[in-house]
Amino acid sequence: MANTVPPTIDQVCDQALRLPCSPALLPRLTAVLMSPDSSADEIADIIKLDAALAASTLRFANSAFFASVPVETISDAVVRLGMRELYRLAALALVSRWEAVSSSGEPGDFSRHALCTALASEVLAETSERVDPQSAYTAGLVCDLGKLAVAHACATFFPAIRNHCTARGGTWAQAEKEVLGYTHADVAARLLAAWKFPPLLTQVVEWCERPREGPADALPLLAHLHAGKYIATSFGPGVAEEGFLFELDSAFLLEWGFTPELLQETMAIVHDRAKQRLQHRLTHGAMAM
Q: Among candidates 206, 199, 242, which has minimal Cα distance to 222?
């Protein structure tokens, strides 16, 4: 007989933390990349802790987009790529690989949507100059990681969540709360804390769908992430069924200066950046880096 009692949030997180290829290396890499005193060799030493990430770094540095003379060492690849491009590569590679072992959906859809959310949040941060663009990018990339953990542990309860949405309306997160007792955002916040992500990112991820309820010091980044999620969902690539059941707090965004006109302008920029980065993978295919 199928289990009629959903796993607890502790059980969901425990299963997720046992999965290989977690993004746990990302906070450590972020810290060394943001330090003005870090050398290429120090950054390379962290990348080399993950063999697959090291291979991706060398492959990308030697791609047609960057290559002139081939590089053979991780340190040389770090110098060639530059800090910003290296961070984007590493972050997306780590999230994409975790999707591969924790998701049963269409390959690449989660990572594709996560990248669009990250790019949208980053572009808004560049425009407003009110938050750090790299922090906004990271928040967009990891804000929905809890969806993978919930899908991995609670897939048999998805029909009940879906039925709740159909019968009563509301958001997917509200239905999760009713059926499971917690939401994917609750799970994501716990996972990021366990992986030692900065507390601000943990708070932003926890409150990303209810931004005005978040802590005061998280509100600037929350505004950019909430707007970024809306842009990425409107944009379309990789959005799963639950992604469209997202309630936009337009009044909150207007308070932060994110007008419909600005969001529309941002969407065009995000489309161009996503197309440049993903090319044919923008609409289909796995996101292996």
A: 206
d(CA 55, CA 156): 36
Candidate CATH numbers 1.10.3210.10, 1.10.10.60, 1.20.1270.50, 3.40.50.1000; the one for domain 10-21+106-282: 1.10.3210.10
pLDDT of residue 284: 59
Secondary structure letter of residue 6 according to DSSP: P
Please tell me the distance from the alpha carbon of residue 115 to that of residue 283, in angstroms, as a whole number: 12
pLDDT interval class at 237 (50, 70, 90)? low
Rg (CA), the chain: 19
Mean pLDDT of 272-277: 84
Q: Where are the beta strands (DSSP E) in 174-274?
A: none
Contact 173, 147 (CB under 8 A): no
Residue type, 139: A
In the chain, pLDDT over 70 holds for what percent of residues? 87
Instruction: At 121, list the tokens.
Output: 């949040």
Query: Rounded to an integer, what distance in angstroms lies between the CA atom of residue 30 and that of residue 130?
Result: 20
221 vs 125: CA distance, rounded Å? 9
> pTM of the full predicted structure?
0.84
Q: What CA–CA distance (Å, rounded) separates 175 from 230?
A: 19
pLDDT at 2: 55
